[in-house]
Amino acid sequence: MAKEDLKSMSLEELQGFMANIGEAKFRAKQVFEWIHKKQADSFSDMTNLSKNLREKLEKEAKLSYARILEKRVSKQDGTTKYLFALENDNIIESVLMRYGYGNAVCISTQVGCRMGCTFCASTLDGVERNLTAGEMLSQIYEIQKDTGERVSSVVLMGSGEPLDNYDNVIKFIKLLNDKDGLNIGQRHITLSTCGLIEKMYKLADECLQITLAVSLHAPNDEIRNKIMPVSKKNDMDRLLEACKYYSDTTKRRITFEYAMISGVNDSLDCAKELSERLRNMLCHINLIPVNDVKERNYKKSSGETVERFAEFLNSKGIETTVRRKLGSDINAACGQLRKGYLEKRQ
Q1: Which of 2, 61, 83, 331 could be 69's S-S partner, Cβ–Cβ 3.0 to 4.6 Å?
Q2: Portion of the chain with pLDDT greater than 90, in percent
């Protein structure tokens, strides 16, 4: 019988587990704090538990993990890219970004991705499986141990589509926010989606206070269908209706991610059409000079083109910023390091 992963359990679930193995309810709180506050790697580390209980936990349960395989540190800005090994030799990656306000970590939610966005390396080999809540947390815990520094904000924008792993992601957010864990405020958590409409409505009804970032990347369905296959089932009119529902329900501003691809979606006409689409919406646009992916034909827009695009949108009253490019010397973009590692391993 498969062992249960205690790192993925809420305190209430852990209390139920303890009762099932004949232990007192208060033991759950001790174990929960060992896992999430002290970030113990094994049951043998939990020194205020009896030897008998530790042996019982070893037999009945497990702690999911993410073991650092490789680490690259940018000489330009200190951004650090981590390659992690999970159970069954699955490989994922995360990125640590240092800002004036604190450390942010961008984590993966799936091994690979099945969304097929043509400008992203994460999706080249499809998806292998979903990550558990414990495996998502492990990425953050291991980065904190490696750096000796606290993580203050988390972005679900690495490999994978978070809403394609909905239940595990919601559990992860609640564990991350738990006062007996890392206690990271929901407003310091950003979830990025390519626009799975039904799941966006479901997420809105959770009434969380996280930031929702929607990968838009085009002003119309014609362009979006070419670069984002998912949009064929999630057209822009319906997608923007879901975005409005989310911001109306949560009172939170939507962030629209827009990867600037030379000659594809970066013309002034595209900017004009986009401004019409997003008029009167509670939103912010984040322009991203796309990373060159050798398997694709796309090149990033010139700095001048990006600035002109941003200036136009701002002139129309739509708050627009250009994402600061971090870790360009270490392949910090989604999927690039993992892709290279898997090619070498093969």
Answers
A1: 83
A2: 80
